[in-house]
Every structure is written in C-alpha cells, then in structure tokens.
Amino acid sequence: MVNGESRSIDQASIEMMEKAAAEGVNTAFDRAEATKPCPIGAVGSCCKHCGMGPCRVPLPKGKEETPQEKQKRRGVCGATAETIAARNFIRMIAGGAAAHSDHGRGVAELFLAAAKGEAPGYEIRDEQKLLQVAIDWGIEIGDRSNKEIAVDIGERALAEYGRQEGELLFLKMAPLKRQALWQRQGVAPRGIDREIVEIMHRTHIGVDQEYQNLLKQGVRAAIADGWGGSMMATELQDILFGTPAPVAGKVNLGVLKTDEVNLIIHGHEPLLSEMIVAAAQNPEMTEMAKSKGAKGINIAGICCTANEILMRHGVPIAGNFLQQELAIVTGAVEAMVVDVQCVMQSITTVAECYHTKIITTSPKAMIPGATHIEFDEHNALKSAETIVRTAVENYPNRSKNVHIPSQQTDLIAGFSHETINYLLGGLFRASYRPLNDNIINGRIRGVAGVVGCNNARVKHNEAHIAMVKELIKNDVLVITTGCNAIACGEAGLMVPEAASEYAGSGLAEVCETVGIPPVLHMGSCVDNSRILMAATAMVKDGGLGDDISELPVAGAAPEWMSEKAISIGQYFVASGVFTVFGVTWPTLGSNEVTEFLFKDFERMYGGMWAFEPDPIKGAHLMIAHIDKKRKALGIDKARERVLYDMAMRRELT
Known about the structure:
Mean pLDDT: 94
Shape: globular
CATH architecture of the largest domain: 3-Layer(aba) Sandwich
Number of helices: 28
CATH class of the largest domain: Alpha Beta
Low-confidence stretches: none
Distance between the termini: 73 Å
Radius of gyration: 25 Å
Number of domains: 4
Strand content: 5-15%
C-alpha cells in the first residue's frame, strides 16, 4: 500500500488513503505504484491500428542514419515514428473532441426538447443570453416568443454536428484576425462530427502518412471542439440553467455529513444533476430521510459535475478526479451517481467494501456491478426522485466504520465571462477595460489559464498548486476550470483574502480593489470555452493587440491525463495561446513531430505547445512568454502616470 504523504498534498486525501490501506482497499494510488506505464507507448511510438501490430518504433540513436538504417525503424506497413506519433496524437484529439462535443449534443437535444415543451422541469433561465445567441447566429427575434427563438437555436445547434460545408457558427465569435488565419491555414472546421470522423479515417492503416498533414486535421477537429461542441454546451447550459454568478461554497471531503444521507454526483453533464438537486429539496424526500434515521439529504459533487452544481446552486464539492474512490472510503456515502467521463471502473469494487451504491445513468456509460437507473430527460424529475430515493433507502445500511475528514475549505466560484465583465466594469458599463488597463500599467503582468485533470503518476494536486502559486506571486491573474479549479479551492486560493497572502503586490492591489480572488473559478472542462470568450473580449476592448496571439496570456495543464486535455490544449494553441503540459508528452518518440508542435506551430498559428514536468519551471516558461508579449506590445516598461489638464487634452487632438 502507498504512503499517503508521498501521493497527495491534500490532508483529507492522505487520511483516506491511510484508511483504505488499513482496510485492504485498493485505490488508483496503489495501482499507479503497481502498474508502470509502457515506455514506448508513453512517447507515442507504438502503433496498434491494425492486426499486424502492435509495432514499436524506437528513436534514432543520435547519429546520421543511412537509408538502410532508417528502413529498419518502421512498422510492418512501413509507417515511420513520425507518422505513428502524429496518428496517435490526433486520435487523442478525436477522443477528447468527441467527448466534449457529444456532451454538447446532449445539451442541444435537451434544449430543443425543452423549447418544444417536451421536457417538463426545464425552462429558459437566461433570456438575455438566449437573445444574444440568436443575434450571433442571425436568428430572427422580432416579436417572437422565447420558445420560438429557442426552437430555432436548438435546431441550428444540432445542425452544426452534421454540417458538411461552410464553417461552424461560433467561429464568428473569434477575433477577425484569428478567423482570417484559420481560413488561410485551411483549418476552419466544417461540421463537428465530420472533423472527428475524418481523423479516424486518416489514421486508418494506409491513408494519411504525412505527419504535418495529419496534425493539420488535428487542429481542425480541436477547433471544432473549443469553438463548436464545448462552446455550444456552455452557452446552451447557461440559457437553460442560468449563467453562473459568484457564489460561496465549500470544498473537500469534509463536506460529507455524519448524520445525513450523502449522495455524490460525479461526471460531467449537468442535465441530470440539476434535477437531483431539485428532487433532494422535495419535502417528501426529506421526510423519507428522517424516517430512515437521517437528519436530511446532503448533495455533494465530484469532478466537473461538481463545478456545475456549485456554480449554480452552491452545492459543495467533495473532491476532484483522484478523490472519487476516497469519498467512498469514508464509509459515509450512500450513493454515487455517475454519468459520463472520468469515472473510474474501480469505484464499484471499492464500493463493495462499504455500503455505497454506484448508480449509472447513461446508456453510453455502464459499469459492471453498478445499479443502472437510466436518466430520461423527458421525465427528468421522476428519474431524479428514483435515484434520491435509492440513496435514502440505503442509509440504514451504513456501518459504524465511518470516518469523514475534517478538511473543508471556503471558496468563491462562478466567474463566467459575463460576470467578470460586470465585476470589472459595472452592471451598466460592463467592460474588460479595467483588466486591460491594469495589464497595460503593469499591476497585472498577464493572464494564465491553468486547467486540467489529476494524474496518479504524480503527487495529487502538487503541480497544480505549485504552478498557480508561482504565477500569482508574479502578478499573473489565474483563471481555472475542472479539477485544477477544485485543487485551487482546496488550497484556499479562491477567496479574496488569498490575494494578500499569495499574490504579488500589483495583482493583490487589483484583487482587493475589485473584491475578487487571485484565482478565478470559471467552471467545468467544457467551460474552457469561457476562457476563449474572455480572451476575445480582451482583444475587442483594445490596447492589447488585434488577436489572441498578441495578448500577454498563456495556458497550462500541469497534471493532465485525459484525451479531452489534449483536445483542449490543441484548440488553445490553434487560438494563439502558448500552452504548457506537465507529467508526460505523447509525441516524444518522434523528434520531428515534437519539434513541429513546439516550434513551427507558433509560426503557423501564433500559439505553440511546450512540455515541462516541473511546475515551477513551467510557470516561468509562461511568465517568460507573457513578458515577451508585453515587450512586443510596448508595455514592458513602467510609465509615469500623468493627469492631463485641458490644454494637454487639446494637444492630443
């Protein structure tokens, strides 16, 4: 069994690892110790795309190779390390883009059903955003009802998946210079599904064998994710469930209750979780819980569903990806309800050691040993009530072997693009101007989007927190989503008081003036599209260049592990953002492909990849890039502030 102190910086997680070890329960931390990664597969040099493989192609030994020697470093079909690495890389993009975009498709289907009155319990919560999307998409408003407008939006959203020509509608939200660049490079996506399918076709044996051409298709599919499926999911969810606004919450395993029914919602799609929150508040359910000996029903979240219900309802977060098994180990969880993405198959075997019921809800994601209660969006509240009732009925089966860690931390979440606009500029003059001005005057050095997963191959949360603290210490405002956001919450970085303790003097001054934390919670992993919108707003407000690639911004995923992270990173790079990944890098088996991603991409797209497993060094790569952009903009030197009198103003004109 692993030593908890060596595997996490979070005390609650360490306590649960020790409890699991004492009770003989195997977790991801144990399996990471026992199962070492394949060294060839880890660097992208293993091809298993046909029945003649797997073929493993090693790197050259450093000397000039003869044609005969090069021939030996190929797969059975003749594929080179470059072809294999590029194929593997863009297949990861396809997997990540498919996950995010299928999430968006599910939201669009529910959105259309709700607009037609076929999904009771769902309604339009944000009329302003409904009308804004209609304007952006060229949908007539006039004197039409919200439902009529919503039907058009829903139908047009679903059509984006099967579009065969032209460009995705949301591409028009990007800066004009960025749109022109995508058209010039030939990477503006046509339809969301088309780009993903084309990756799978191109990477079949004997199709596309030129690594630069393969990577070009990867860029196209990633843009279809970030500026297509993910952006669609975020915008339509906001219309249906409400655009997030700052809300106080709590995070970590200590949010579980000893005397209440604990129901954890885990996954990524808020369609069901919204209804579970509503069902748990039903007085009938509360009375049922009391009849079983509990004082009430406590809902908590894991992973990105946690971020969704925190932002909109203040529901506490129990933990991030690597804490899902540890929540069960507390012995206090009556049910863990899961939908899709980042759900470990092992949660059912861990649950067998306790009384916890694992409930799957999606026909796309079933787990052996789980109870399946399929979510029907056309009868959503009934589905949710069945799930809550199952958890309540399990409460009497809880044993006395319960240990809930005391750790829980306060945080402020819900900083959507719109909220940041209002906080900075005011309700009637919403604007990114104060942010741009404070970047120009140097109080804020730049902005960093630090996002992504946990990875059991590195110490839980350590890289996230080390990188974020280093950035804010150097006056870089951090915006975050997903599991990184949860890690930052657990570390106490998401309250306004954190600015005076951890941030540099310039950033701290701005945060204290506005009343915001130095690390802004922007939502779940599909909500990385909010970061794209924020960057675009900075460009449109002026003073920091004409494109995202000219902004003093950078991105990172210091503990990434999922294919979604690769797709996210690729669409940020394609949008002009310098992006650093930690832990491992999947193309190191080909020097040419890695060099192309790390250098040539900047010439082509204005953004590029970097790999640095040390989070402090990674932070300084980002800071150096931000400083480079500041210098290019001519704002790298402090300027004396001058109060202009009328005569000086006349001279300006």
